[in-house]
Specification:
Blueprint lengths: L18 H11 L2 H8 L6 H11 L18 E3 L2 E3 L3 E3 L12 H12 L3 E3 L7 H7 L4 E5 L5 H13 L4 E5 L9 H4 L2 E3 L2 E2 L1 H8 L2 H11 L21 H8 L9 H7 L3 E7 L2 H9 L4 E4 L13 H12 L4 E4 L6 H9 L4 E4 L1 H33 L14
Helix pairs in contact: 1-15, 4-15, 12-13, 14-15
Length: 390
């Protein structure tokens, strides 16, 4: 048989060479319905695919004969120095991927020297994350019809020392993730095929479901009706709880309850970026929710340059959606982002090997980014400019 290139068959995260390898390890280690929850996008998944296509369309123009000895990835972020221009993005139900869940993600971020963002729909109490992981912690906020839920979360996060609040603005109407839905007879009721596939993953079954039980929405559990706090029961109730009437005017209400840094996540236009400045926000996150909300949406990287030109350094600009390589991160920084949020890439690491897998993912991205800096003729992430791209 002729020699042929093959994707990595490694089953140990230590032998993974890139995020794609970690993804394959994760795919094998968790049941199909769990991986689909992590992987899937909305409807035709056009937005999901386009996020990668838009990043791939950008090409580098390096400068040569530059001394790049002593390169640094350090970047300023809200008055402090991060070890790299990275933040782990907020994602819900991480306890379904690995028994360490949010704690594993947060510990890896703290050890690496970057912030971790905890989701409203996390499966770990925000106080437990602060106590067991430490580091720089951000809190993501979904505003629900019962405003007392948001007020409770903001008060508790402030008391626990969370640095920033990330208001998600693009999920007031839930996206339709059709491939995810195909695993269920009805919401919360897995198909027989999904149950059988779960039995083929005894290690996951034992470590996650048997040891920990069905993950629960710990931070909002007190506000949920009976039976709705678990990942199974909440799937039908929680989408109906989201507040569809929240507007820019509500930023003032949030400011009354939140003393720390405030970012709005879901900005994709220069007009909305200017509104964030006028509303007194400290930062914005350019995102299409990783392709999980509006299908056929622009990729954040496509509008980054325009938004950076519109608001300059009046806001901290964060970007996510589709980032899998250090080269992707370099492109975003060159176009004006101050830091990049990483979602699926670190979740692949979590599913593959818990905290160690997350750290492996972060190490990969950092090594790749450092290499790209050197190859472009840059000594720091601050040296990156749009002139390096075509």
């Amino acid at each position: 048989m002729p020699w042929k290139r093959r994707a990595s068959g490694a089953r140990d995260r230590a032998y993974a060479l890139n995020i794609a390898d970690l993804r394959e390890i994760a795919r094998r280690r968790v049941p199909g319905f769990v991986f689909e929850y992590l992987e899937g996008g909305a409807e035709d998944e056009a937005t999901l695919r386009h996020n990668r296509e838009a990043l791939a369309a950008l090409r580098f123009v390096p400068q040569t004969l530059v001394d790049t000895h002593g390169r640094s990835l350090e970047a300023p972020l809200f008055g402090r120095t991060a070890a790299a221009p990275l933040v782990i993005a907020p994602t819900g139900l991480n306890g379904m991927l690995h028994q360490e869940g949010d704690i594993g993600l947060a510990r890896a971020a703290a050890g690496f020297g970057i912030p971790y963002t905890l989701s409203t729909l996390s499966t770990t109490l925000l106080e437990d994350v602060a106590a067991q992981a430490g580091g720089r912690l951000w809190m993501q906020l979904y505003v629900m019809k019962n405003r007392a839920i948001a007020e409770d979360l903001m008060a508790r996060a402030a008391a626990a020392g969370y640095e920033a609040l990330v208001l998600t603005s693009d999920a007031n109407v839930f996206g339709s993730r059709e491939w995810d839905k195909r695993n269920y007879v009805r919401p919360g009721k897995p198909r027989a095929s999904a149950v059988l596939d779960t039995l083929r993953h005894p290690r996951w079954l034992t470590s996650v479901l048997v040891r920990k039980g069905v993950p629960r929405f710990r931070n909002i559990e007190a506000f949920l009706p009976p039976g709705a706090a678990s990942a199974v029961g909440g799937s039908t109730i929680i989408p109906q709880m989201f507040e569809p009437t929240i507007t820019w005017a509500d930023i003032a209400w949030i400011r009354r309850h939140w003393p720390g840094k405030l970012l709005v996540k879901g900005v994709l236009s220069a007009a909305d970026a200017r509104r964030a400045v006028d509303a007194g926000c400290d930062g914005i996150v350019l995102t299409n929710h990783g392709g999980r909300q509006l299908d056929y949406c622009v990729a954040p990287i496509e509008v980054l340059g325009e938004i950076a030109a519109a608001v300059g350094n009046r806001l901290t600009i964060v970007i996510d959606s589709g980032f899998r390589r250090g080269s992707d991160i370099a492109k975003a920084l060159a176009l004006g982002a101050h830091t990049v949020m990483i979602g699926r890439a670190t979740l692949y690491g979590l599913a593959a090997d818990g905290e160690r897998g997350v750290r492996r993912a972060l190490d990969m991205l950092a090594v790749e980014l450092d290499r790209v800096l050197g190859q472009l003729g840059c000594c720091s992430v601050a040296d990156l400019r749009a002139s390096f791209l075509r």
